[in-house]
Structures are given as structure tokens and as C-alpha cells.
Specification:
It contains five helices and no strands. It has helices at about 1-10, 15-45, 50-75, 80-110, 115-140.
């Protein structure tokens, strides 16, 4: 019983949005590690200004998210070619990047919150934007 449940949760293709949200959480977690780690390394060690670091880190997280999402979270809708799908995936991501940058600027520069904490707040908000926009605008049948 547990083995079957784990198989459904982690292996079988699904259109169930609760399962997709669960899987997207894992994908988002991995993309977040790439994003957050890159932000820290570029800002702390390379001396890149945090907003530039955040943008570069976000793009790396976006690519990580897309590659895993198309193979594990969402089913290809068949509405468009894969390159077109990536363009729309990226456009949704760019809206997320805009939200990310705005939230980080407001929290860090205007509210004096450390940039790494600002990133945590931003990530929580942008995660839900990205999931629901991609689920309902891009990967719906």
C-alpha cells in the first residue's frame, strides 16, 4: 500500500494539481538551492551587487526548474512546440523575476532587511505565482 502510494506520489505521470504542487515543491526546492546558493556566492564572494546576483541566480534557478518540471511535474500540453513552451515558461519566470527584484529591493533597501532574508520572503511569494501561472496558463490541456 505504501509502495503504491509512493509510486503515485513520485513516479506516475499525473494531472492532479495537488500532486503537481507537491512535486513542484521538490523541484522548487532544488531550483531554490541553485538560486539561493548562486546569490550568496556571487554577492558574498565575488562582490557582485545583490540585485545583479539575484537576477543571475534567478535565471539559473529558472532553467533548473524548467528542465525538471517538464520531465516530472507537468505533462506537455501539446498546445505548442517545446521551444515555444520554454519561451512561455520563461515569460512567466520573468514576471517572477520582476516580483523577486521588487520584493528584494523593498525589503532590503527600504526596510533594511538582510538580502538573504529578503530572498526567502521573495521566494515564498514567487513560488506560488510560478506554480499557478504555469499550471493554469501553460500546462493546462
Amino acid at each position: 500500500m505504501i509502495r503504491k502510494w509512493l509510486h503515485v506520489l513520485f513516479v506516475e505521470p499525473t494531472n492532479n494539481w495537488f500532486l503537481q504542487l507537491f512535486r513542484y515543491g521538490f523541484v522548487g526546492g532544488l531550483a531554490f538551492v541553485v538560486d539561493y546558493g548562486t546569490l550568496f556566492v556571487l554577492t558574498h564572494f565575488a562582490g557582485v551587487p545583490y540585485l545583479w546576483s539575484a537576477a543571475a541566480a534567478f535565471v539559473l534557478g529558472l532553467v533548473t526548474n524548467y528542465l525538471i518540471s517538464i520531465s516530472w511535474v507537468f505533462s506537455h500540453s501539446g498546445k505548442m512546440r517545446l521551444w515555444q513552451e520554454f519561451v512561455f515558461f520563461a515569460i512567466i519566470g520573468m514576471v517572477g523575476l520582476f516580483l523577486n527584484e521588487c520584493i528584494m529591493y523593498v525589503c532590503t533597501d527600504l526596510c533594511s532587511i538582510h538580502y538573504m532574508v529578503s530572498k526567502l520572503l521573495s521566494t515564498a511569494i514567487v513560488f506560488f505565482w510560478n506554480f499557478f501561472a504555469r499550471k493554469f496558463l501553460l500546462f493546462s490541456k
